[in-house]
Write a structure and sequence with these properties.
The protein is built from 11 helices and 6 strands. The protein is of the alpha/beta class. The chain has 3 domains: 78 residues, Rossmann fold (3-Layer(aba) Sandwich); 106 residues, Alpha-Beta Plaits (2-Layer Sandwich); 64 residues, no CATH class. The longest helix has 35 residues. The radius of gyration is 26 Å and the shape is flat. It binds flavin-adenine dinucleotide (FAD).
Length: 276
Amino acid sequence: MKIKNIIITGTSRGIGFELVHIFANQGHNVLALSRNAQPVNNLHFDNITSFSFDLGNAEDYKKVETFIDKLASFGHESPIEHVSYTFAVEGVSRVLTHQLVRHRIASYSQQSQRYVKLEQFEYIVPPMIKKNSEAYAIFEKAMLEDQMYYNQLVESLEKTYTQEYLSEGYSNKKSKQLAEKKAIEDARFVFPNACETKIIFTMNARTLMQFFKHRCCERAQWEIRELADTMLELVKVVSPNLFKYAGPSCVSGPCPEGFMTCGKASEKKAYYLKDD
Ligand SMILES: Cc1cc2nc3c(=O)[nH]c(=O)nc-3n(C[C@H](O)[C@H](O)[C@H](O)COP(=O)(O)OP(=O)(O)OC[C@H]3O[C@@H](n4cnc5c(N)ncnc54)[C@H](O)[C@@H]3O)c2cc1C
């Protein structure tokens, strides 16, 4: 059996107390938090750490902080899987979300292009393209053309599908409704990666640490790096202890990028650890 590190609050009585007993009996390490630590202390288990903790007392958080630091120094990362964060992100491209969802230990919900007809799709322009007037003009032209081809495809497919549905005996109104839905489904294939999208996702703290290692790295693509930096700033506000040493890999260890390294490890360390 894999031994787990388990944190339980409200452990002086009832279900909290019983859970401490059950998990400790199974050999797991339990951190039991309650205003009254005595009932759990009376159990006399070596694998239970228990101390008096009052959510309303700022001093008590120090005790938990020390415990978390101790776990971190042992390399025990599984306890932080119990802490999760939900982000709602908009105004980003599908280039970004395609990379984001490669982080598999997370939950995602993204705006659909399948059921929403885009009369004029929004898109993200890379800053380097925006700065270059010639490149910007080419980019804008491509976006306009994409929208034009999309509209033409929807119109053409709609005609074909409407005939099909009519021949199957559907009413005029129903045939048009069904045909539009089906047409959008295929026409969206011409939309570019630049298409703006919205996504909601939930990641636990362990996944986030890994995400920051990869995506705050100088080698990460600019848009996802900007997102990762913003996410890191946000989680540092709500969980400063947990993310004290978070950032690209080089902040807490050697750079894993080999000959592709940016060579700026000390600069990065200074930047990401500036608050400590
Ligand atoms: C600079 C950069 C360049 C990249 N270039 C490319 C590219 O060219 N092509 C490309 O395809 N991707 C590329 N990626 C994406 C990269 O390969 C990863 O898919 C992505 O960073 C997610 O990392 P992950 O798998 O560690 O994360 P997660 O999916 O969140 O997994 C977290 C950890 O869980 C464990 N894990 C998860 N699933 C499994 C499993 N099935 N088996 C065993 N262990 C598992 C691993 O330890 C893993 O590190 C790039 C990423 C970066 C940062």
